[in-house]
Structures are given as C-alpha cells and as structure tokens.
C-alpha cells in the first residue's frame, strides 16, 4: 500500500543543493533520482541505512517489503527503531519515520514476506532492487526474479566481522548465481541465529549499497558490477575480487515453487488445511501465538496460549506430554523464527510454524476455531 504521495512544491532546489553542486552530478542526476523507483527487500540492519540515505538523497519512490516485527535484539544495529516500538511492524514504523525525514518521497509498503507467488508482481514495478535480507532463500528468489525481469540487484551481506557488496544483473554483468550457483548446505556456514553481527557492520555495508543504487540510477561513477567488495571489520582491510559472468546462470525460465533455505529454514511447516484437520480430529497438540498481547486479546486460535515474539524465550515454554506444537503469528515469519528457537530446546518434539499465519487461516476458514476476546 502507498503511505505517502509527494506534495507539490519546490523544496528540492535547497534540500539537495549540496548534492547538485557536485561536478558530474548536478540537477540532471537529481532528476533521475526523483523519477526512480527502488525496492528495498528487508528493513533490518542493511535495509535501514539504505532507506535512510536513499530517502535523504531524494529517490522519488521507495518500496519496503518485510514481514518482520521489531525486536529488542534488533536495536544494536537497526538504529531507526526504538525500545518503544518493539513488537511493531518494521516497514510501517520505518515508512512513518522516513516520511518525517523527507516529505517529498513516496513510500509503498509491503507488510509481507517475498515469496515465489508475489515476487514478480512486486519487483516488476521498480527500477532497482536492493537485497537487504539475511536469508539465503530470499537471495536466490531475488536473483531469479531479477534475471527474469532484467532488473539490477544491489547486494549486501554481513556475517560476524565481514561484509560483502556487489551489483548483480546489471548491463549484462554477473548474477548472484555466478558467485554462488547453489545455496550452501547445512553446516557450511554458521547458523543464522547464532553467528552474530557487530552493530556498526551492517551500517557500513548498507551505506555502500545506497551508494551503488545512486550510481546505477544516475550513471555517475563506476558501479561494483563484475566485482565483489569485501570488508574486514577487524583489520579495516578492503579488497575487491573480480567476478566472471557465467551464461548458464541466466538460464532461468521461471521461478521455483519453493526456495526453502537448507541453512536457516530448519522448522517444519504446517498448512492451514492440515491444522484444520487436527482440530476436526480433536487430536492433542499445543498452539502458541507469538503475536503481540493486544492482538491475542482481540482474537486467537482455539487452545492457543500467548508468548509474544518481542519478549519470546524458548525456555519459558513447557512442552506437554511431548505433543506436537504449532506456532503462529500474523503471516508466518516470526513464528518460523520462534519455532527454530524452540526446536533447539526440544529437538525430539514435532514443532511447526503455521504457513501464512493468522491472515491465511482467516482467508481459508474465516472465523472457524477462532476465539474472540
């Protein structure tokens, strides 16, 4: 949905004057930014600095897509958010704050995960895509969608004390699959939830991504297409490696039906139809609602207990008679993460995340097995 439409007026000349007076930039480059549409996938550690700088520099329309909510563990690196906003939607909070930074920008927010079902529909509306995710499945989905639609993708990644930046699928250059043809297998890299990240690191990488976006949009300067920029945050070393375009990486005719990550998506998924059958059969299972307390108070699935994601601790949950556990949130993203934490504590218990969350349940079954108030 669109949260803001730019007003008429001429604040731009003064607002961007320090930028337009640059040699080789000028009003011509500023106008290109003003007319551009950029999609930022992920409103977390990388996405926050990208969004802040692109907003400040005057990119006309910014799309934000992320199904996640703000958690306390985000705040050491996602400095757009505050303690008071824990539990709220990242994209909604981000768009409101960015609007206050620059009222001339239009924001289009997608409070959902990027999936094979919506990726092409959303991405085709934008000129440049920014990969600001921390999820291998989404990275491969983004790559394939950008190849199919011929959209440049500005890539960034941070792991512990190292950062990567590149521009993929730009003017015939390499794609993400030229660098990593297939997803890593489990155990090849540290687990997504335990590897850790230095707070300032995604800020540095995100700023570099914003710079690459501006170069792609304006043609000013040379992009990192064909190269991978690597940052070592312990030694302050930076170096580039040359990437070779591989024709076979472009042999993509359609999106895969699923991009499940073998590294991060280690939790079993349960569909709404399967859970409905469980209710109908009256078989024993536990239901855990990780939405915030106010949402639970309004309505929740039958037999559900509330453990809000913003304060979630796996050790607080008692498994009853080793019964299967179904966890759900609004759309399925937070319940997936919470289920991963619980699965580590109870490796022998069947723990599921409800696909599509409460939204999909109500779409499929309306108010069946829902308790009001």
UniProtKB/TrEMBL annotation:
It holds the Pfam family Rhodanese. Keywords: ATP-binding, Nucleotide-binding, Transferase. Signal peptide: none annotated. GO terms for cellular component: cytosol. Belongs to the HesA/MoeB/ThiF family. Catalyzes the adenylation by ATP of the carboxyl group of the C-terminal glycine of sulfur carrier protein MoaD. Homodimer. Forms a stable heterotetrameric complex of 2 MoeB and 2 MoaD during adenylation of MoaD. This is Molybdopterin-synthase adenylyltransferase. It comes from Mucilaginibacter robiniae.
């Amino acid at each position: 949905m669109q949260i803001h439409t730019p007003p008429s007026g001429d604040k731009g000349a003064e607002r961007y004057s320090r930028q337009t007076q640059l040699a080789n930039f000028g009003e011509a480059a500023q106008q290109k930014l003003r007319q551009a549409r950029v999609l930022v996938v992920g409103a977390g550690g990388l996405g926050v600095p990208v969004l802040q700088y692109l907003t400040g520099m005057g990119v006309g329309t910014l799309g934000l897509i992320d199904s996640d909510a703000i958690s306390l563990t985000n705040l050491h690196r996602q400095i757009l958010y505050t303690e008071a906003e824990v539990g709220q939607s990242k994209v909604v909070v981000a768009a409101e704050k960015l609007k206050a930074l620059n009222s001339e920008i239009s924001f289009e927010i997608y409070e959902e995960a990027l999936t094979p079902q919506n990726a092409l529909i959303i991405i085709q509306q934008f000129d440049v895509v920014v990969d600001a995710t921390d999820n291998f499945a989404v990275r491969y989905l983004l790559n394939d969608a950008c190849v199919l639609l011929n959209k440049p993708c500005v890539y960034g990644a941070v792991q512990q004390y190292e950062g990567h930046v590149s521009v993929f699928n730009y003017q015939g250059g390499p794609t993400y699959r030229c660098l990593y043809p297939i997803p890593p297998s489990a155990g090849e890299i540290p687990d997504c939830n335990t590897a850790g990240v230095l707070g300032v690191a995604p800020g540095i990488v995100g700023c570099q991504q914003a710079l690459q976006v501006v170069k792609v949009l304006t043609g000013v300067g040379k992009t990192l297409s064909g190269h991978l920029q690597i940052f070592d945050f312990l030694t302050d070393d930076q170096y580039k490696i040359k990437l070779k375009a591989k024709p076979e990486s472009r042999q993509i005719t359609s999106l895969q039906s699923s991009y499940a990550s073998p590294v991060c998506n280690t939790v079993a998924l349960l569909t709404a139809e399967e859970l409905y059958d469980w209710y109908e059969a009256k078989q024993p299972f536990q239901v855990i609602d990780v939405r915030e307390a106010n949402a639970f108070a309004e309505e929740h699935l039958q037999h559900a207990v509330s453990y809000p994601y913003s304060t979630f601790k796996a050790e607080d949950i008692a498994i009853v008679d080793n019964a299967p556990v179904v966890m759900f949130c609004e759309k399925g993203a937070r319940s997936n993460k919470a289920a991963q934490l619980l699965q580590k504590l109870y490796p022998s218990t069947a723990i599921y995340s409800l696909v599509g969350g409460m939204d999909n349940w109500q779409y499929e079954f309306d108010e069946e097995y829902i308790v009001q108030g």
